[in-house]
Specification:
Elements lengths: L4 H13 L17 H13 L3 E5 L10 E6 L1 H10 L2 H14 L4 H21 L4
Antiparallel strand pairs: 1-2
Helix pairs in contact: 1-2, 1-3, 4-5
Amino acid sequence: MKRDFELIRKMIFALESGDHDGWMPDDYKIPGYSQEQIDYHTYLLVDGGLAYGEKATQAGHKVVEYFISRLTWAGHEFVELASDESRWRKAMGIFNEGGGITFAELSHVLVALLKTKSAEIINNSTL
């Protein structure tokens, strides 16, 4: 299954919102995504260090499932980087033109865009 950064973004926002105590397999639905996609990306959140989780795979399931208890520090950092819609679209646009994308590259581009915006704010400040 292909990794989907849009789905990962939606999932970390849901986890960060604190609308639930953890995330059990099959408990959470995201419109436009199958349960198998959500389960796989739940695994990726844990494997990638964005969330704390424990294996919760049930017999007969094809995908390794995880119970997610909360975001990690890195998960919260990614929420901050990905929270601005304009910055997110710019970053994703850069990679859509060039093909593949890694999490590290995406994070670096989001940081660079954030630094650029911060520099603009500081330069326009009347402090």
